[in-house]
Amino acid sequence: MNESSKITVFAYSKDQFEEKRVKKVEEALNYKEYSVVWINIDGIEHLEELKRIFGFHDVAIKAILRAKSRARVAILKDHLFILLHQVYELKGGLKKERTAIFLKDNFVITLQERSGDVFNSIRESIRHGEGIFRERGADYLTFALLDAIVENYVPILENISTQMEVVENKVLKNGDKDTLRKIHGIRRRILFARRTIFPLLEVFRRLRLEGKEFFTEETQGYLEELYNHVMEVLDIIENQREMASGLVEIYYSTLSMKTNDIIRILTVVSTIFIPLTFITGIYGMNFNSKISPYNMPELNWYYGYPITLLMMLAIALGMLYYFKRKEWL
């Protein structure tokens, strides 16, 4: 047996419960007298054994082995197969993990690529007899597993919303390239979540319409609520997509305003220096005032230089005052 794989059996009835770590899938058959037998397998090394013992269809086995399989459901003659993805937050992004769920008679089999999942609350409820798990059948457990996967998306989306609020404040205060990278990172996570969740609509639609024989009437009502819950999650994602697009627009608008401010200031400075440059240009022509009395006689004035400087200063201050009055500064 591969050391990375782990098989855990949760067998329970209304007043009984057993939890056992086993080495082979066929050992779980010893608990078939219980109302529900949940076989939780970490790793996909036991697919052939599952096919041999439970008669699972090749379509399901191939879908699990296919690395890029989308969420799907196969409603077969004597068992139900559901493939979907659990999503986890990692530093800098999101990661999804394939999770397969089989429902046959009183057996529920879950397979995932590695240890760690979103089912711990279900395990604890079964262990301690909390809730209604022990009073219901395998169909209700199947619903609860699906619900746990969908419910796990909610805190992830809430975290994305929190990040968007932080980034929005940064954009309004001082948007820079790092802020833009964060916005694009958020958009990638939103699109990743949408691509993962959107196929669940078809999965739950088919379960409601075509998989009724595998669920009691009461559990079918829960599936209806689960379908609506997925719709609500998708609505949240669509709102986040619009907000993320809005953040990009705000960023570029802020950047454009900053650019306009810089251009305005540079234009004012250039405008002020135009008359000053004109004056200095005239007095830089170096005409000889001794040859003709019309050749810049002011060059011989005793206070010509300081008067010229004061005049240039007055022009600059007067233009600044005028720009301020016009609210161009």
Automatic annotation (TrEMBL):
Its main location: membrane. Coiled coil: none annotated. GO terms for molecular function: cobalt ion binding; cobalt ion transmembrane transporter activity; magnesium ion binding; magnesium ion transmembrane transporter activity. One of its GO terms (cellular component) is plasma membrane. The keyword Transit peptide does not apply. InterPro entries: CorA_cytoplasmic_dom, CorA_TM1_TM2, Mg/Co-transport_prot_CorA, MgTranspt_CorA/ZnTranspt_ZntB. It is a multi-pass membrane protein. Keywords: Cell membrane, Ion transport, Magnesium, Membrane, Transmembrane, Transmembrane helix, Transport. The keyword Zinc does not apply. It is found in: Cell membrane; Membrane. It holds the Pfam family CorA. The chain crosses the membrane at residues 262-283, 303-323. NCBIfam families: corA. Mediates influx of magnesium ions. Belongs to the CorA metal ion transporter (MIT) (TC 1.A.35) family. This is Magnesium transport protein CorA. It comes from Thermococcus argininiproducens. The gene is corA.
